[in-house]
Amino acid sequence: MAFCRVVFPLLVLSIVSCSASFVPVYIWGDLAKYSGPLDSVSQLSSSEFRQILKHEVSADTDTVVFVEDTLSVEDFSLKNSDGESIFSYLHSTVADAIYLSSVSNTLKAIDQIADPSETDHIKLTENGLSEEISPNSDGKGRFVVIRLVDAREGESRAEMLERHDQFIQETVTKMQKENAKVVAVYTAEYPSYTIPKTYSRTRRAAEANPMTYGVSGLRLYAASIELKDGNTTTPLSVLSATSSEFNGTTQNTTLTFDTTSLVLNFNKKGGYWFFDSVTLNVGAVSEELHPNDEVFAILDFSYRCQQHISFSTVNETRAYTLSFNDLKIQPFFTETNTTQQFGDSFNCVGFFSAPIWAGLLVVFILLLITFYGIMMMLDIRTMDRFDDPKGKTITINSE
């Protein structure tokens, strides 16, 4: 029989790559002397584990199985607030225990060994045991499977496992007083750090549906277009008709949404194009809407400066506001096909940005300092104040 004769922290080092159905198994108590090969690190199949457990459990032995919902090798390394292992009882039994770090379908193997008529299934809930563990009066071996499903609100995993360790100690000690031979098994249904494959449906908010309009002479992208009339906001999404008119330096593009039509008015001059206004037609009502901020870009460039562009009526009794959210737009002032792509984006950042101006200022200051230093060096004069012009000149001959 191969025992896990190692200190408890070494159990943590025997971590292996586990699939979703592999869990650790810890066995202790009145064990038989298993003489077969035993590898506590390698993965074991359900049949291999069944063979080991079947050899350890004799006919007159009570076997109590403590089943966590989830358990992994990493859980054995958890500490409490005092820095001590949360499995103090299991730690005390490690010298004469069998530890298997990765076993497949442990509960299936246990069910195949246990006699259904001699097996009690009990749950540990927040209210205690679902039923008391009855004494073994006939002396025959039996299985007691206890599922630990008493998680409490606000309790950490370490606190829950430490409480389970105390419960396991109390239960095993009580059973040992009633029966001379007791074998205990601590395992789980699933690993705690590998979630079993499940399928679920989650209700999610509908994602925004961005719209790209390819119109003759115009390319327009917007996450949404909304028309606000007083306190009423109407989204404009279904485009039913389009048309464009060109007149040299101007362009008027009409977008028709059901009963609402928008005439986008563009103008170009001085190498720039400008989005001057929008003519709104709602039924018999016609209004001229002007941008709250100037919308313009370099010719052959697309406008991409602000995320939210609004056009509003000016000094009108009835207030209309047309909003383009996440707008990108470019007029071409000539007939184009509907697949015409955007030009380079104009982001309203000048060619000389603040960092560039700061860099130029620093360079200018450094040049000024350098120039001042050179001028000071050129102005250095030799001191001839104490020279006697009538005296003999000192001559130094060099060979």
TrEMBL record:
Transmembrane region(s): 356-375
The keyword Isomerase appears for this protein: no
Organism lineage: Eukaryota, Metazoa, Ecdysozoa, Arthropoda, Hexapoda
InterPro entries: Ac45_acc_su, VAS1/VOA1_TM, VAS1_LD
Similarity field: Belongs to the vacuolar ATPase subunit S1 family.
GO BP terms in the entry: regulation of cellular pH
UniProt keywords, alphabetically: Membrane, Signal, Transmembrane, Transmembrane helix
UniProt signal peptide: 1-20
Entry keyword Cell inner membrane: no
Domain V-type proton ATPase subunit S1/VOA1 transmembrane: 350-388
Name assigned to this protein: V-type proton ATPase subunit S1
Gene Ontology CC: proton-transporting V-type ATPase complex
Subcellular location: Membrane
Superkingdom in the source lineage: Eukaryota
Membrane topology qualifier: Single-pass membrane protein
PROSITE patterns with a match to the protein in the record: PROKAR_LIPOPROTEIN (PS51257)
Residue stretches making up the V-type proton ATPase subunit S1 luminal domain: 236-332
GO molecular function: ATPase activator activity
